[in-house]
Write a structure and sequence with these properties.
single chain, alpha+beta, Rhinovirus 14, subunit 4, three-stranded mixed beta sheet, 2 helices, 22% strand
Length: 83
């Protein structure tokens, strides 16, 4: 390896999860904060958590309905202004 081109490698890097789990590993960063780890990830725990109450499809359908209503209102306004 060439000298002075590689980052410093820490063998005692502290990883902290939002669930409170902490463990050490090796990394080029001294401390790492993560949102999800093997103690709280649904794949490893077998329990599924729903973060948002509405799904992506429901949100999309609402946006489409709002746009349709907006188009209807704008067409009505255009008809009134043309007369």
């Amino acid at each position: 390896m060439q000298k002075a081109i590689h980052p410093k490698y820490y063998t005692d890097c502290q990883v902290t999860c939002t669930c409170g789990n902490k463990f050490t590993t090796g990394s080029t960063v001294k401390n790492i904060d993560v949102e999800i780890c093997s103690k709280c990830h649904p794949f490893f725990t077998g329990q599924q958590k729903f973060v948002d109450s509405k799904g992506r499809i429901d949100k999309f359908i609402e946006k489409v309905e709002k746009s349709k209503n907006y188009i209807k209102k704008s067409k009505k306004k255009n008809k009134k202004t043309k007369k």
